[in-house]
Amino acid sequence: MSRPPVQAVPILRVLDVDASLPWWMRLGFAEEFRHVFEPGLPRFVGVARDGCRVYLSEHAGDAPGPALVYLWVPDVDRIAADLGADVEQVPWARECEVTDPDGNRVRVATAT
């Protein structure tokens, strides 16, 4: 029986999933699942892009943050232009840093 590959998934605290999702979609992510224990309780949503996953949680006890996520992508320039961020050349990559609606920072990079 084969085992699945090891995968780490960051969980980010968000105040309103519906406000956060459009921002993450601008980074190329799509909603993968949504879970609510019962109506009126906080939502827990998974977003994914090319095998990379991030969980967005409205639960107050999950990852009180804000957090920092480092995201490798094929074209940082496209994302930076869309989000109005400046791209910087660092020794290992071209990168920019953007902030989601809840103050979580995302460093987006393309290897050089």
From TrEMBL:
Source domain of life: Bacteria
Pfam assignment, any one: Glyoxalase_7
Example GO biological process: response to antibiotic
SUPFAM superfamilies (alphabetical): Glyoxalase/Bleomycin resistance protein/Dihydroxybiphenyl dioxygenase (SSF54593)
Keyword entries, A-Z: Antibiotic resistance
Keyword Hydrolase tagged: no
The protein, known as: Glyoxalase
Provenance organism: Aeromicrobium erythreum
